[in-house]
Amino acid sequence: MTTTSNFLAKSLWAGLLAVGLAACSGDTVTNGLQQEAAVSAEARGYLTLSITPPAAESVTYGREVHTSAEASVYDLRVYFFQLRAGGDANNDADYLFTNAGKQTWKKEDGSALLGPTGTGVYSKRIAIPEELENKKVKIMLLANDPNEEYTTEGIPLNTFKEQLWKNTLTTTASIYRSNEIVEINGQRRFPMSAMGEDYSGSGSGNIITLTTGTDTPVLVNANLVRNVARLDILNDTPNLTITSAVLSNTPKQSYLFPTSPLKTPSTARTVFSPITEYSAALPLSYATPGSGETAQQANTKTAFYMYEQPKATQQSTAPRVLIGYQLQVGDNTQSGTLNVYFRSNGTYIDLQRNYLYRIRLGDGTDVSGFVKVVFELVDWETQEILAVLDSTNDPADN
Predict the structure, then answer these.
(1) Is residue 335 one of the residues assigned to a domain?
(2) pTM
(3) Which of 163, 164, 327, 368 could form a disulfide with 334 if both were Cys (CB 3.0 to 4.6 A apart)?
(4) What is the C-alpha separation between 128 and 100, in angstroms, rounded?
């Protein structure tokens, strides 16, 4: 699934090169370069790094398809990993972190660098450190994370990528609020990551050669990806009221970058209640759509944020959403629960970062018995249904 586009980044390259962007006004920029060694970027060579956040090309359909926080970047950290002498350019273990090119960017006033409240694409011109001239490197980016303890001089790239994001949930609670996984110091900031991609022909894919001695900069593009998934619940049954929702068997932490094959940290899986806004709105009855709004838009609510994990091998360990509901059938009120598992055609599936999953309850009509449940994969940016993963009205699952 692709949730970001290179279009804006590509369309801006000519303008960026013409004006030779330096650090934007109002930013705080720190790096590992020796500032007192006043060697110009032009004399030594430089790279232009263009960074695109999720939802840089915002689309709305009568309701917010993503919140401002989900698409905003408040701080960025850029890490350079140099290929060691004699190393294999295709082996992450042979790329070692160097402080020579490390960058930290944020605005002095704490506002967003990127996203709906910042700019659409963020670009910097970075002087190539003398130690990295004409070297092969991989460039890694982290966003919205105040921790700086992930790197030490010489740490291999493969080790860096599989470190745990440090926003650990408290260990004293038996049930966690879903938004805790993206809250930092009381503010909702979504952890994001990216790997730089060569855009100038100086390297190959994410293997970048920092060529110097020419008037042409090394061009690097990076598309940030959220480290979490989102789950929405659509009440598409007019006589149904959602009374509760609980997510279980999902992890408390994630790795900084995607793993291949997908794996989950050894930290215990736990139980989540919905995000604060969803919990406060319960019970949720079917809502009449407002002007310019469809019934589905009016009744789709974000309930959970989740960390990724590989598909379960058995039902007892599978991610599950337990939804409590009431049906009003004439003068009678019927109560029930629905178990919704992460499955596709009856087979358990991976729960992946930067994906949006949606549970649809019903088909737009009243029901008097079992509620039809449809589990969908949806584009986070446009709300387009990408796939119907599972569908059931089997009482064994309800």
Answers:
(1) yes
(2) 0.85
(3) 327
(4) 9
